[in-house]
Amino acid sequence: MEKTGKIIDGAKISEEIRQGLRREVEALASRGVTPGLAVVLVGEDPASQVYVRRKNKSCVDLGLASFSHELPADCTQDRLLGLIAELNADSRVHGILVQLPLPKQIDEHKVLLAIDPDKDVDGFHPVNVGKMLSGEPGFLPCTPAGCQQLLIRSGYNPDGKHVVIVGRSNIVGKPLAAILMQKAPGANATVTICHSRTRDLPSITRQGEILIAAIGVPRFIKADMVKEGAVVIDVGVNRVADATAKAGYRLVGDVDFEEVKAKVEAITPVPGGVGPMTIVMLMKNTVQSARRTLEEA
Ligand code: GUN
Q1: Is 174 designated active site?
Q2: Which of 92, 122, 127, 285 is most buried by its number of CB atoms within 10 A?
Q3: Separation of 171 CA from ligand 1 center, angstroms?
Q4: At 1, is the pLDDT very low, low, confident or very high (cuts 50, 70, 90)?
Q5: Where is 258: in which H helix or E strand?
Q6: CATH code, 141-275
Q7: What is residue 48's three-state secondary structure?
Q8: 112 CB under 6 A from ligand 1?
Q9: Where does CATH 3.40.50.10860 sit in the chain?
Q10: Helix-, strand-, coil-residue percentages of the chain, each rounded to 5
Q11: Substitution site in 40, 42, 51 for ligand 1 pocket (most atoms within 8 Å of beta carbon)
């Protein structure tokens, strides 16, 4: 039989976390609180539409209130800032997520700054970024937090390991490095970040006992870039043309899965790896935010 690494099942692991959240949502309901998440989508980017739909569905499934706001692609920055001010003031809303990327007439930084840090379930507000970096409690960004949980819960605790991250985005690469290097259980990793300007990338990725790909280039990581026996987390979600698929495309990760899986200890699939984890971490942040309003009351 062909040798293959273990496939890390993100759908199954996210479901375990979801079960715990269900109990918390019931406990909150008994105290008269329904956690509420507002999701704002500007424009009609098809991938963003899919993500937003999944987030709404996930809320409904867990018994959370979901407030969906869709604004046109030519929406002004002021209109979006006005909506955020309303959501900041709305006591039914415990979490606010503005789907990125935004159209070019809108300054992303200004928008993220306008969200109340106590409702910033994406963890993108500079206050929460600062808390994350200094190891204070706050909202952790969902995809990096999901990657960390995926590692811990599949038996590959990053503690003491050399983790190589390919990609330096504000959404994944940078926060993931900050989370995994913390002096904390489930972290304590030695982290290297690589990016498009890294010289001799393969020589560095081959050092990773845990290799995390978050670059947004389909099947970029090949077998010769991976250490034998590594654990590989693929954050990429890329659409590639496929005439045999009903939609005319299919989703592939940043890792050449077929090539790499034979060489590794374990690997996440796309879809069904990191994706479901991101959504459940968003739900967790929203429930945490709702719980905090009770603690403060
Ligand atoms: N676009 C891609 N990933 C994310 C995310 O985690 N949050 C938001 N708001 N937008 C995204």
Answers
A1: no
A2: 285
A3: 7
A4: low
A5: helix 257-260
A6: 3.40.50.720
A7: helix
A8: no
A9: 32-116
A10: 40, 15, 40
A11: 51
